[in-house]
Amino acid sequence: MSVSLVKGQKIDLTKGNKGLRKVVFGLGWDTNRYDGEAFDLDVCSFFTDASGKVTGEQDFIFYNQPQHPSGALIYSGDNQTGEGSSDDETMVVDLSKIPSNIEKISFVAAIYDADNRLQNFGMVDNSYIRAYDADTNEELFRYDLNEDFSLETGIIAGELYRKNGEWKFNAVGSGYQGGLSTIARNFGLNI
Question: Any idea what the Cα angle at residue 169 is, between residues 153 and 134, rounded to 5°?
Answer without folding.
Answer: 100
